[in-house]
Amino acid sequence: MTVLLLIRHGANDWVHGRLAGRIPGVRLNEEGRRQAAALAARIAHLPIEAIYASPLDRTVETAQAIAMPRGMTIRLVEGLQEVDYGEWQGAELKELYKHELWPGVQFYPSGTRFPGGETLGEAQMRMVSTLDSLRARHPKGMIAVVSHADIIKLAVAYYVGMHTDLFQRLEISTCSVTALAFTKMGPRLLAYNDTGSLEHLKPKPEEPAAEQQAAPQQAAQAPSSTGEAEAAGAPQPAPSEAVAVAAEAPAEERANGVEQ
Questions:
Q1: Which among 64, 175, 210, 221 has most CB atoms closer than 10 A?
Q2: pLDDT tens across 101-124, in order?
């Protein structure tokens, strides 16, 4: 039985402001580094046999916090990347709320394509294929996978049997742990969005007024998160070299053909 720990990276300066997407240089801020250290302590007793991460800075730094005390290598996997938001990458959420595609992203994400990017349905299949490949390498072990909010939500929706178009009902907090066990009877959700506290239940700032949204018919619907609302703030120190980081080989160079 494989136990899969899906971990979102820690906080950074642009959470809740912009859609960082795959922009390089978005690093953990002070809060994010505290979160990552606390995360490493919370799961220190777990027998993790491999650590995989999206190749973006914020996920690598979070994975390093887990790997350093264990003396383990981080393996970077392209298939764990953030959703490809295309032309929306780097945009302010308050502007995206007004976009004509916003209702589709919220209520028909499986078939709504980000301009120049993926549909969330395509992103889900990419993530699930990658995770299935990784867990096949560890049929009786526990592995940690550090990735991003939307892509983790999409994976959870798939494994628990929730339609992709309902995935916005899920929430994944920074440095949260979601655990899935893969048994002969199918996947089992062991833990969801666990942060070791109830901080994520604190009331959030009010959402933008309904009239600012694109579709008038959704005026009564408070906008939910498109994904990781982040962007690059002041540069942070480069990731520590104390932990080895191994990039996974391109898909065409491996027999399983899943990861990039």
A1: 175
A2: 999 999 999 999 999 999 999 999
